[in-house]
Each structure stands twice: as C-alpha cells, then as structure tokens.
Amino acid sequence: MLNSLHYLAKPITMKYKRILLKLSGEALMGNKGFGIDQERLMEYAKEIKLAYDAGCQVAIVIGGGNIFRGIQAEKGGMDRVHGDYMGMLATVINSMAIQSALEGLGVQTRLQSAIKMEQICEPFIRRKAVRHLEKGRVVIFGAGTGNPYFTTDTAATLRAIEIEANVILKGTRVDGIYTADPEKDPTATKYDTVKFEEVYNKGLEVMDMTAFTLCKENNLPLIVFDMNKKGNLQNLLMGEKVGTLVVA
Ligand code: GTP
User: Fold this and answer.
1) How would you class 31 by CB atoms within 10 Å of its CB: exposed for 0-12, middle for 13-18, buried for 19 or more?
2) Cα of 122 to ligand 1 centre, how many Å?
3) Predicted local distance difference test score (pLDDT) of residue 8
4) Domain assignment of residue 92, given as a range
5) How many domains in the chain?
6) Closest Cα partner for 24 from 105, 127, 97, 94?
7) Ligand 1: centre distance to CA 230 (Å)
8) Which residue has the higher pLDDT, 108 or 9?
9) What is the model's pTM?
C-alpha cells in the first residue's frame, strides 16, 4: 500500500526543466554479481516516470559496467580500444533495458546511439534529440561518446551540454560528496553545495577529469545523489536539498 502511494506523482513545480540523468551500469545489477536485476530496473523506471509525469524533460545516459568494463579487460591483456568498444555496446544493452522498462510503464522514449546500429535504435542527432524532448519523450543516449578512452560520465556531460540540460544528475549509491571517504574517515561530512574548484583542489572523486572539466568549463551544474533512495529524484526536482550540488 505504501509503495503504491509513494508512486503517485506529486503536483510539482519543477526546479529543472530539462535534466540529464546519469546512471551507473553497476547499479542495475542490484544484489546480483552481474547483468541486470529486473527489480532494480523497474524501481529506476518508476522513479524516472515520476519526473516525466511531472513534466520534466528527461534524457538518460547509462554506463555498462554491469556487463563489461573496458579498463579491466585491458588488464587481462585485451587491447584497450577493443575493450572500450565492447563497453559501449554494453551501454546499449542497458539503454535498451531501461527503454523497455519505461515503455512498459507507458513512458514514450527514443533511444539514440553514438555508434550506428539502425536496426535497433536511431543514430545520435542532437537536433532530433532536442525535438524528442520537446515532444515529451524520454531520450536515452547509448554507446557513450562513440569513441574509446572516454567514460560514460564524459558522454553524459557532453550530451547534457549539447541538449542544453539545466543540470546533470549523477545517480549513485552514495548520498552525495563528502569531505573525505566516509568509509575510511569517520569525521568526513557531506557537502550540500561545493564549488568545482574545491572538488578539484581537494582531489575529491566525483567524475573523471575529462567529464569534470567539461562540466566546469561549460557552467553545467552537477548534482550527485542517491538514486537508490525512493522518491529522491522527485524530491530533488522539486527543489529539496538532496545530494550534493557542484557549482562554478
Ligand atoms: P517525430 O518526427 O518528431 O514524429 O519523431 P519520431 O521519432 O516519432 O519519428 P520517426 O519517424 O523518426 O521515428 C518513428 C520510430 O522509428 C521511433 O520509434 C524511432 O525511435 C524509430 N526510428 C527512427 N529512426 C530510426 C533508426 O534509424 N533506427 C531505428 N531502429 N529506429 C528508428
């Protein structure tokens, strides 16, 4: 009963009109050691539907680490570029999974890939992506940037800038950015807001440097928040203090 009540969309005045939600592939594993946990997938889809129902324009980038990690494959002797392309394909699998889950809930979606695979999805075309968002479709960007040596965080940041998203939301398993690693330092405290400069100077691990620099140089606000806490995404969009906001 509580659960179904929870999923009633609240009447929302949105703080952000257009968002880019970055999800990690690992998070989709749930408690499994590999692949996609259907329950977790549906939980995410429901959270995204709430934002969509409230009129927010939602774009999504999802990682592929639950299926394949290029960097680890390199340690095992695989060519890095080859491994990265396999990782990009893994993001397309996750994108298709989230697309299917969302459409099962009645959410209109379009999937665009940075690597052409026209039997499965549209190619990435920025102007078309923006049009889809304006028409009320959730747009999922698959295959990273389409280039090796870039992370999905970088792909998410790049797409967010391209579609002129108001904010990039990095959904993680932690509830924000801390002054130090809270698992190692019990005195660590969470930031509500922090400047890019401070994150950089203190070497806080938020995103890889390419993604981080893109955000900083383009004045794109970033919020790191716990995507596994029910209602968090909606509360954040309503302007509640959720996670950590990184600003210029
Ligand atoms: P509007 O032009 O705004 O109406 O957008 P639309 O996406 O509805 O039109 P379009 O005719 O481009 O697409 C219709 C359907 O075909 C949508 O589900 C698209 O995702 C899909 N589609 C479009 N282009 C491709 C493609 O290159 N490959 C695949 N697999 N599907 C595509």
Assistant:
1) exposed
2) 7
3) 56
4) 5-247
5) 1
6) 94
7) 32
8) 108
9) 0.92
